[in-house]
Structures are given as C-alpha cells and as structure tokens.
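Lab notebook page, bench 4
Experiment: in silico fold of construct C2
Operator: M.H.
Input chain length: 88 residues
Purpose: comparison with the prior construct
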Amino acid sequence: MKRLKLEMGQKLTMLYLVLGICAGLVSNTFTDAAMALLSSFALYIVSLVPLIKLVKHKKTKWLMYNSLVTFFLVWLTVWIFLINVKAG
C-alpha cells in the first residue's frame, strides 16, 4: 500500500480543522456568545505560538492568515450546527 505524503500546508490545514472542531465543541458548553468566541480564539492563539517558531519568517503571515481562516470557518460551522441541534 502506497503512503500518502502530505505537504506542510496540508498538515497545518488538517491540524486547524481538528482544532476548529474541538473549539466548536468547547464553545457549545457556554451560554454566552462572547465567552464562546473568546475561548475559541484563546485556543487558536495558544496553538499558533509554537507553530510560528517552527515555520520560516517568510511564511509567518501565510500561516497566520490560512490557519485563521480554516480555524474560524470550521469553528463557526460546528458551533452553529451544535446550537441548532441543542435548540431543536
């Protein structure tokens, strides 16, 4: 069986996909929307700090932009889905 090789950008996207899902699950426990938003972005910042040290200086802006978009969209989708499931 042939192993699939993933590039660094694909690995980071998968990482922030999983973190976005986890943040959506954690945000669902809060009743206050502001607290849910703050907790999710705290998780994002905490995860971003070690990754900035791993990438080259030129790629820092790329990492911050792409990871933020992936994380935010996945978090928002999961959070809205869970709110609708809980309300319905």
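Observations: The chain has three helices and no strands. The longest helix spans residues 60-87.
Next step: discuss at group meeting.
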